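S., here's the first fold you wanted:
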Amino acid sequence: MRILLNMIGFVLSGALFTVQAYADQTGQMWWYEKSNLDGSNAAYIAVYFPAENHIESFKWHPGAGRATLVRAVTHPLTKNVSSFAVVRLNAQGEQQQMASLLEQDGSLQIALGGQQIQFALDGQYWHSYDFDFASLSGFFAGRADEHTTLAFERLDFDLQQKPVQFKSFGEVQLQFVDEQQVDGRTSLHYFIGGTGLSGKQGDIWFDKQSKGLVGYAIPVGDEPGYESVRLRLLEVRTLASSAWQAFQLQQLAMQ
């Protein structure tokens, strides 16, 4: 539930992008550790790419006895999410759907429990912060110039409103800084900030070759329990679909 309730979307200017070659992530699992900037409330996120334009994100806290799985489909050109389903898993592998989203006729159609939400996109692209920028890698891979500042809009659920509302929180920018070695990976380093992140600034890194997300440190939380977010890549594995499912059950069985 939390992975949808605090979803952050991003509206990007298509003029800065073009379709270009990058390392294919199909069949790969990117395993991350997530925490507050001070290391508290540590959790894990495994992002799997089962097929082109498909993303699955498995999120769990050690010892919780449950996990959240998001299955998403992205647009073949823009790479922003066009649909997803959020399910809760228990240690027996049983699944319960918690929420869904579908982009249709220029709007996001969202089902959250018994609530139906419609949000007009006006032809704009979006990505999700609480989806841990999982879809942003594919979109970033089409960037025409790695050194160009990228401006986009933050779309988010406003948890202060009852019932929950989906709205724009303002502009966010990615500004190129330099190349860095991050845990042995040559990475492109950007500042990320703006009014859409409460006027604060953080850092985000992408793998230079594959354009995959290496991590970020942002002084703004994305869900309850996080006043800030540090995401750090631990490992990349190549897995068959059956091995990916076994990985999920293994993590749940260890809790």
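And the second, which I think is the more interesting of the pair:
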Amino acid sequence: MLREFCGDGTGPRAEILSSSSLHIQGLTCPAQAIGTCAAVTFVVNPGGTGNLANGQLAIRFSGSATGCGQTFSYTSTFDGQRTSTNPQALTAELGTVGAALESELARSF
């Protein structure tokens, strides 16, 4: 799971396709208040991708945010490098991506 994307700490699930690629599944986050809008819903469209090459993880997905009569499209990109030597520590936390998206949308809602 790509944690911390939604306001409740959840995020879209990833389906492992091979040792170097994954598929991002779709998700509708619970509504949350952003700016002056009391209920904004983030949707992650299915079909996002993730690839691992030379120790670098790249994740890309898109979706929309809808609330108070407005809808905005977005594309999220995460690029990172694994820093842990623990083989169990393979988790992408997208809290900063979600927070940045929320901050940008707060100007519009």
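Why I say that: The helical segments are 95-106. Residues 39 and 106 are 12 Å apart (CA to CA).

Talk tomorrow,
H.
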